[in-house]
Write a structure and sequence with these properties.
Chain lengths: 328, 324
């Protein structure tokens, strides 16, 4: 069986007046059926843009280029815009970060839920209302029949995010993109939403791509992780390996700079410097100016992908067979 | 035992809700409702709670940036709420604040030298060359370069801006600093830089911090004592170690268990709280937390618990502490 999603050499760039911003810089990854994949990285690393590109939701002045974006073996780039619309919301759905801004405040929750259901599943008004109310109940919204007729501002942040999840899952998509779904929420509400998503994941067979900057949240949600920096994938492995045995200095830095709730640390080890300006990405490895193990070759050449183990890849000269020494 | 540098006694801050034809006061948002605690010199008190619990309002009320509704705050021997104008301005030299958002808290029309040095002129401490030298050395202390003095805030990244905010707070050589979510708008890799800087400065200048945050892991890292706030009230306050290892209030327990742990082997016994935080305009009867509490009993719904000492300075406001 082919992989559910296959992305090969995806480039997304924004052609602005100040120059070209390479937001996503040639990323390749696969997503298996029923798998949940995490994408970690700091703001501006291209994690959201990569997912929006897959759904072709990038607007002018953005340009998407890829060798392949295949959903269940079907090349999405060759589809017309009209065909693409039948896939969005139906086979691939998106949960956005800000439940406050991603729902339209002038339509009722019910209207916005029904819209997708009627469009993609051809149900009539009455049937879609029943289905919508079922969905609201499934995501744990109390008094679903009432909430159906309410407007988004009358719901709390957590409830709105539940409504977003109901909307995204209403057509039983094959892939669910969750873009920092809990970042705007308080920690106790975050726990509710993560619990709900974990529960739903087991009940319906949807593959999830979970975007977050928080490795703690990621480690509760996914099987496999991709770490992104400056538009490139710098390391990918299963979640255990990433947390217990990271190889790339950036992944290391991300883990070490975070305080732990369960352990006392003497001192945090921050990553020096800051993320480079996307208009002016350093030559060679993009992480090289902040990297403590940087060598001469890092400044001139971009490292290729090296395999550490089955399913664990890293893009770093320290682990490359050509040039550089192997160090653990 | 060291002297408390800041002491709060029954501090209240209500925001009136006005309504009707004559804009009469029809109710109160009890943002800060009867809070008492003290902060020892040279320590960091972490103040945690979810959004809307009143933690920022409390921070600002302590500095009298907001006018209090009732209560007293003592800084050293001064009753802050009773001081006026000139005296208050002199006191402010010793108490400063670092704001959450380094993007909106720096005036974009002033260069860094003006932002950091403004207070030196206002307080008549240094002018001209002397001011410039003080600013430059302060920028260096905060990990920036002296020549950054001529630049404007938009030329800096978020982490650097927060360093400017810290430099501004420190130029007057204060003793007490309220840090209002100083790291929550920064990227993960930058947060550690700023927290380390704050720790270094604390050691160097003997600062006392009130560190307001919703990031429980960071509060565990930086604080000596931790206070947990819920709906305008302190529900638990204790030494850090005690609070994180032996949380007694059901809200603290739920809050701590809700934090995701960066460990795939971690088996969480997560307490999922039902529902949302109630509106502070209409707080529940009895214990504030009772509608979401899994242990709530009859008298929790009628009677408001008081903050009680349960031994070695660990204070909890819960009727059921003994049963926990």
């Amino acid at each position: 069986m082919p992989d559910l999603l296959e992305v090969k050499n995806l480039y997304t760039s924004f052609h602005t007046e100040d120059g070209v911003v390479p937001a996503v810089n040639g990323i390749t990854f696969n997503l298996k059926h029923g798998e949940s994949l995490g994408i970690v990285g700091e703001s501006g690393c291209g994690k959201s843009v990569a997912c929006l590109s897959i759904m072709r939701l990038i607007d002018h002045p953005g340009k998407i280029k890829a060798d392949a974006i295949k959903l269940d073996g079907v090349e999405l780039q060759s589809l017309s815009e009209k065909k693409m619309r039948t896939i969005r919301g139906n086979e691939m759905a998106f949960i956005f970060q800000e439940p406050m801004t991603s729902l339209n405040p002038v339509y009722t929750i019910g209207f916005q839920l029904q819209e997708a259901i009627q469009l993609h599943q051809g149900l009539n008004k009455k049937q879609s209302r029943t289905k919508s109310e079922e969905m609201l109940k499934m995501v744990g919204i109390p008094r679903a029949e009432k909430v159906f007729d309410e407007y988004p501002p009358s719901l709390s942040g957590g409830m709105r995010q539940r409504a977003m999840i109901a909307m995204a899952l209403s057509c039983e998509p094959k892939i669910l993109f969750a873009d920092e779904p809990t970042t705007a929420l308080d920690v106790t509400i975050q726990a509710q939403i993560l619990e709900l998503m974990n529960d739903l994941k087991q009940r319906i067979n949807t593959s999830i791509i979970f975007i977050s900057h928080d490795l703690g949240v990621i480690s509760e949600m996914v099987d496999r992780v991709i770490v992104m920096y400056c538009g490139s994938i710098i390391e990918d492995a299963d979640i255990r390996t990433i947390i217990k045995n990271p190889k790339h200095p950036y992944t290391f830095g991300l883990i070490n700079s975070k305080p732990r709730i369960d352990v006392d640390l003497d001192k945090l080890i921050p990553i020096p410097g800051s993320v480079p300006n996307p208009l002016n990405i350093p030559s060679g490895c993009p992480y090289q100016p902040r990297c403590e193990s940087a060598m001469d070759i890092c400044k001139s050449k971009i490292p290729g992908k090296s395999q550490i183990n089955e399913g664990h890849h890293v893009s770093c000269w320290l682990f490359s067979k050509q040039g550089g020494k192997i160090k653990s | 035992m060291t002297e408390p540098i800041v002491k709060l006694e029954n501090v209240k801050k209500y925001f009136p809700i006005r309504g009707g034809v004559f804009s009469r006061v029809v109710g109160n948002i009890k943002a800060v409702d009867d809070i008492s605690f003290s902060i020892q010199k040279g320590e960091t008190l972490g103040l945690v709670g979810e959004s809307g619990c009143g933690k920022s309002t409390l921070g600002r009320t302590i500095l009298k940036l907001l006018d209090p509704t009732a209560g007293k705050v003592f800084y050293k021997d001064f009753d802050i709420f009773a001081t006026q104008k000139e005296e208050l301005r002199n006191l402010r030299r010793e108490m400063q604040i670092i704001f959450q958002d380094p993007y909106s808290s720096l005036n974009p029309r002033l260069n860094v030298g003006e932002i950091v040095g403004e207070c030196l002129e206002i307080h008549g401490i240094a002018y001209g060359r002397e001011k410039q030298e003080k600013v430059e050395s302060m920028l260096e202390v905060c990990g920036l370069a002296p020549h950054h003095r001529r630049r404007y805030p938009h030329e800096f990244s978020g982490g650097q801006r927060q360093r400017i905010g810290i430099a501004r707070a420190l130029t007057l050589n204060p003793d007490f600093i309220v840090a209002d979510e100083p790291i929550s708008s920064l990227d993960v890799s930058i947060q550690a830089q700023i927290v380390n800087l704050m720790e270094e400065l604390q050691e160097k200048f003997g600062l006392t911090y009130l560190f307001i945050s919703h990031d429980l892991s960071m509060v565990r890292h930086i604080s000596d004592h931790v206070a947990v706030m819920y709906l305008g009230k302190i529900v638990e306050i204790s030494g850090k170690k005690e609070l994180y290892q032996n949380p007694l209030h059901p809200y603290t327990q739920a809050l701590l268990s809700a934090v995701p742990v960066m460990d795939p082997d971690h088996k969480s016994k997560r307490i999922i709280l039902r529902g949302d935080v109630p509106s502070p305009a209409n707080p529940p009867q009895g214990c504030n937390f009772n509608p979401r509490c899994i242990y709530a009993e009859e008298h929790c719904r009628n009677e408001e618990p008081e903050l009680r000492d349960v031994g070695s300075g660990h204070q909890v406001s819960c009727h059921l502490v003994e049963k926990m």
